[in-house]
Amino acid sequence: MQRRSNAYHISVLAVLMAIIIIQNIVPFFGYIPIAGLSLTTIHITVIIAAVILGPRDGALIGGIWGLIDWIRAFVAPTSALAPIVFTNPLVSVVPRVLIGVMAGWLFIWFNRRKQPTLGLTLAGVAGSLTNTILVLGLIGTLYRNQAAGFYQLDLSKLMPYLLTIVGTNGVPEAILAGILTPLIGTALLRFKRN
User: Fold this and answer.
1) Which residues cross the membrane (predicted)?
2) How far is CA 192 from the centre of its chain?
């Protein structure tokens, strides 16, 4: 039984690592453009890793995403702002690692209280918002002048602009994660128990 459990764990971890890499490489798979917005879906893979495999492996999958973003900022930036902000691992890697930590522990807490579906939903929402708030908050804190120049805003209008991005991108991403995490997570958790 232990061998089957280890094989399941390693298999799921490998598949999720592959999905993260594919989501970063294949256009429109990890970042979906909708009506002028770019909705991120990669964080859902990190959240699924965290609730299925635990916070440590969720942090590992998030770290892989962050490392890919960090490398891409040097060699193939996705925007003009990326080489400025995502070359800093504090912005590109740390928030992605913390998605796994936050989602994993939140799910464990609710699962121990016999509320796994609520735990999956809240892990999805919290994991998504962890990414959005930390990335935009760090950009606003560490790169105020560069970000204001990039967005062609007066410095005093930068934080309201970033909060608007939280509302237009972050909230739909959190809703999507809150819907998909229980749908995917429930099936994978059921398979894990069998």
Assistant:
1) 7-26, 32-53, 60-84, 90-110, 122-143, 163-189
2) 23
